[in-house]
Amino acid sequence: MPYITTPDGVELFYQEFGSGRPVVLSHGWPLSSEAWERELKLLADNGYRAIAHDRRGHGRSSRTHDGNDMDHYAADLAALVEALDLTDLALIGHSTGGGEVVRYAARHGKGRVSKIVTVGAVPPIMVQSEANPEGTPIEVFDGLREGVLNDRSELYRDLSAAFFGTNREGSTISQGQRDDFWRQGMLVGLQSAYDCVKAFSESDFTEDLKALDVPVLIAHGDDDQIVPIAAAAYKAIELVKLGTLKVYPGAPHGIAGSYQEELDKDILAFLAE
Fold first, then answer.
1. Residue pair 210/238 in contact by the 8 Å Cβ criterion
2. pLDDT of residue 1
3. Model confidence over 9-41: pLDDT tens digits?
4. Which position among 26, 33, 95, 160 bears the catalytic label?
5. How many Å apart are CA 201 and CA 8, to the nearest integer?
6. What span, in angstroms and rounded, lies between the C-alpha atoms of 19 and 245?
7. Which residues of 235-270 are buried (b: 16+ CB within 10 A; e: fewer)?
8. Which domains occur in the chain, in start order?
9. Is 58 a catalytic residue?
10. 178, 205, 250, 254: least surrounded by Cβ within 10 Å?
11. Cis peptide before 7, with omega less than 30 degrees from 0?
12. 253 an active-site residue?
């Protein structure tokens, strides 16, 4: 299985399919590169070199006690890009992964990155404050940390409902997809899962968004119960120079079903522009 080793000794697992212009996909919490299986195939089938890694502490990458923060995540992505010597690179990031690719592009990716797609992404900042009243109260994230620490198995089972919107009337998402969310979540080391909550909720990406100088597609469902659109995409689009906002009516946070089908078509169209 393919791995690269970061400067601080973490082994990162990655998947790679196809050839052509490279596209790197970054997953959300508490998932892994397997969350992108459909997109990896779709991109490879359409002439791209599709790559997705497991974030440190997630999936098949090293479980770590330290470095579970957004700066290390972005540096890990830089290590992967440099090890594979990728240029003219498109980045796609979902949720936490959206923050990761934005920070990577702003701080490490100049001259390598040519396009960015964020999906249900956490930037500019999730946590509520006086300056960000639309954000999510810190008590919600405290509850996630408590759940990770005390019974993460039940936390992931419960969280999958809001993640995929199965608590909404008319949802067509299967129990199997919810079970797969749980399966991927249980592969995350407890320390990494716990620390990542702070990374995705309290990291401020305002200056990173402002620094981007390549086209950015900001995709978000307007019924996202995990990363509410008012505090995320609607603010992020005002901060980027070359942004396009695509709102998916009724779509949840999780990428699945008809939302996934429409999103994948939009991603392919954006990459081809």
1. no
2. 62
3. 999 999 999 999 999 999 999 999 999 999 999
4. 95
5. 24
6. 29
7. bbbebbeebebbebeebbbbbbbebbeebbebbeeb
8. 3-272 (3.40.50.1820)
9. no
10. 250
11. no
12. yes
